[in-house]
Amino acid sequence: MKVSDDILKSFSADQVLKSIPTGTIIINERGQMLSFNQAAEQLFQYTADEAVGQPVTILMPKPYQDEHDHYISDYIHTGQKRVIGIGREVTAQKKDGTVFPIKLNVNEVKADGERLFVGTIVALQEASFQFEEDTKAEDVLNRFHGLVLSNKYSSEQKIIKVLELGIEYLGLEQAKITQVEGDECEVLYVLPSSAFKVGDRQHYTEAYCSYLIGSASVRAWQDVSRSQLKNDQCYIKNPFNAYIGTSLFVNNEAYGTLAYFKKEKRATAFSKSEKSFVRLVAQWVSSEISNQLSLKKIEQSHDYLELVKESIPDLLFVKDKRSRLIDANQAFLAMYAEQSRDKVMGTKATKPFSDETTKHFLEQDRLAFEQGRSETEEEVIFPDGNKHLLETKKIRFTDPNGDPLILGISRDITKRKEIEQALRNSEERYEIAVSGSSVGLWDWDIKSDNLYWSPRFYEILGYADKSFSPSITSFLTMVHIDNRDQVERALNRHLEEKTPYDIEYQIVCSDGHYIWVHARGQALWDELDNPLRMAGSIDDITQKKNAQQEIMQSYMELERFAYVASHDLQEPLRMITNFTELLAKRYGDQLGDQGLEYIRYANDGAIRMRELVKGLLEYARIGKGSQVKKRYDLNKLKKVVTENLYDSIERSDAQINWPQQGLPTVHVDPVRMVSIFQNLLGNALKYRKKKQNPIVDVGFEERMFDYLFSVTDNGIGMKSEYIEKIFEPFQRLHAKDEYSGTGMGLSICRKSVEAMGGQLWAESALGKGSTFYFTLPK
């Protein structure tokens, strides 16, 4: 919706009078003040509210008050002027009784058939509008005031007519209003549109406005060709000889310029009256432009509000006291069968609803009109038959004519209520779950530092339910001294870095003994990542820990047995190998081919057995403290592994691709790392396709908490059901005459990786190669 011309006209006239920097007062034929602008307030120390409606004589010393009424009466009946006219110096009186000299200009205007008198006042010592007493100046001032106070024209029409008036009065040919932005000048108004057109832009240095902008004084040249400007770019580009102009100020900032000009020189210099006229016009134009900018903001604001009104899902409507719709948004209109505003506006808002609903609507309307507002939650069956729960607020207001209306805002809260009900149901289920859960639940309000423990939490620690109020501080004191720092670090890392809070620790019970618990938790953060709340659970894992300890003890004993057994088996196997070789050497001629073959079988079996025992021995050594962990640059192992696998690489014509970015430096056992990479790469070369050269890609990725490594080949692959089987000791998927090996390599790799705090797994498909992944902690 655009602001109407009527609004624009009334807005402009009022704002002009307020913003003109010269004291301006309008009186009627009875001498009663109708308007009193801000400059007049400053001169006379009366506020507009105090002055309007009072006789103008309150602004005069006592001796002049009686005479004033005679002046107006004589002028009305005889046409003879005393004060009516231009440039009279008279004495005025302020509110506090102080008298002071002023220069007074009074002009008659007619507005809506009524005779009004416009007085402009300047304190004599501040007088800047200096009009000589001549009929021409008096006439142009009368015409100027008549134009600016007229309701016949729009703001832009007034500006054009004032420019025309100035051209006529000054005897020039053209007039122009320019806006200056940065180093450019843009034409806003021009008469006539010949050398310049609205929208034309010039560089600042090529325009006369460079000599006007920023100065409150009027600049005038009778003949520019005889001045210093004749060599300036502005004159060379636009050779106007007679030129007069000044700055425009909007909101106390230089905005642009007003100028009148013609190509021929002027026969006479510009008079004081002419300069004062240009200054007066500039001040009025400044106020008009300010008003236009304000109206534009109002229009933009209205358009924005209209956009918001039509965009929001809430139902907005305006009703009068007879429940007729005055205005509504599309969300509201969508309830009706008629989708056109023209059909719905002016009709009863209760038209499509049931009698019961209508009665409720009217009661809420009555409350809003009587009390100023009403609020309710109401279940409404829409015209389409669907039932909705609405939260409706109605507020009373008055229109410009003073008629009471109500603004209604209805929000569909059906979904919200359903969610609230679902939440209540969820909370009930949660309470039941908490009561029956084997784990203890906790909830920490971080801002208030309030800590909630469920009944089961108290029970795990041997306390009666709510026997004391826990806090995060008291909780930490209950954690075993050996685990306390670890728990605090885990909490802080979760709150600050959002790392998972998943930890095992010991905590003291009511009788003083410690139990092991497994704790998990999750925090909530606000939009600035400030932690608000954290909740989680604890589970008593003491029995599990004890069982793990027993298993670990048995495992260690088994490892010791395997180590001793494998170590002791090496010597007999070595003897078998040595003696079968010696037997073949000394008695080979006597044994014959079959005897030698038997000896070879025995020797090969002993060698394989020794390799198995060596693998078993190495497997048993892992985790027995045999690791020597240190910071190790994994790039160093590339050369070692490649040299160790040189023969296999050459025979298979393999291509091994290492990461372009290199490998990281990690805290590991270097010997184990060489063994892991050598084993994985060796397998990739061993289990290759017969008619395809092997390609092996070594990958590396740095993650938040660890490093992920991968070894990918284009070999024979395997079925997914066999993937875990290959990590078991002595397990083979192929016959020993197909592929050599003991079946211990991948078992040793996995155990070595786990001993260094990582994990190892594989992905594969038959005929499509395999990828082995393993992680190492940072």
TrEMBL record:
Residues 374-425, 501-553 form the PAC domain. The keyword Phosphoprotein applies. Its EC number is 2.7.13.3. GO terms for cellular component: plasma membrane. It catalyses: ATP + protein L-histidine = ADP + protein N-phospho-L-histidine. GO terms for molecular function: ATP binding; phosphorelay sensor kinase activity. It is an enzyme of class 2 (transferase). Residues 15-79, 426-498 form the PAS domain. Keywords: ATP-binding, Kinase, Nucleotide-binding, Phosphoprotein, Transferase. The keyword Phosphoprotein applies. Putative oxygen sensor; modulates the activity of FixJ, a transcriptional activator of nitrogen fixation fixK gene. FixL probably acts as a kinase that phosphorylates FixJ. This is Sensor protein FixL. It comes from Reinekea thalattae.
